[in-house]
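Q: Convert this sequence to C-alpha cells.
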Amino acid sequence: MDKLLKLFDKNKLTLIVSLPDNSLDFAKAAISGGADALKVHCNIKHKASGVSFGSLAEEGAKLDAILSQSKIPVGIVPGADKKPTLEELKEIVKMGFDFVDMNITEMPEYVYDVKGITKIAALQNEKQLEAVVETKKSNVEALEAAVIPHLGYGQTLTIGDLRCYISIAISSGLPVIVPTQRKIGADEIPILAETGIKSVMIGAIVTGKTPQLIEKATRDFRKSIDSL
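A:
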C-alpha cells in the first residue's frame, strides 16, 4: 500500500495541501503547519489559483526541491491542458511522487499500467461514478470529489454539497478527497468528517498565496482534524 493510502487507512481524516505554486517555501509552510501530504501541478492552468504551471521539464527543478525536502507524501496533477506521456508518467514515478491526480475523463489509458504510484481520479459530477466501475478504470484507488462548478468556487458550503460527498463515498466504496472549491472553514471539518470522506484537500481558496497564510490555514485545519 502506498503512503497516501496508508494515511487514509490510519487517519480519521487526512489533510492534503494543494500548493498554489510549485514553491519550496509554500511546501515548507504547509509541512510546518501540519499537512499529511502535498499536491503539486504541471501542464495546467489551475482554475482556483489562477496560476499556469509549465511542463514537467520546466517545473522539474522546483519539484525536485520539494520532493527532496518533504518527508510526507507528495502527489502531482501531471497535466490537463496537455496530457502526460507514458515516458513522463514513468519519470514522475522515478522522481519519487506518491500519487497522480487527474480528471477521470482526461486520464490516458496507459496511466493504469504504470506501477509504483497511486492513481486518484477527479470527478466533476456524480454521473462520472459510472466510469469508475468500468473494467478499464479498476486501478483507480481514490477519488477527488471536485464537483463544484467554477461559478461556485469560493462560496459557502451547502447541504447539497454534503449530500453529494456522501453519495460518492457510499457509491464508490473508495477513499474520497474533498478539495476546498468552496470556502470551507476549519470549523466545518466535523460535519465533513461525518459524510464518510477520508480527506480534505485545502488549496488557494482557503490557504491564500503566501507562506505565512498557508502555514496558518494548514495549522487551523490540523487542529480541527486532530480534535475529531
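The mean pLDDT is 92.
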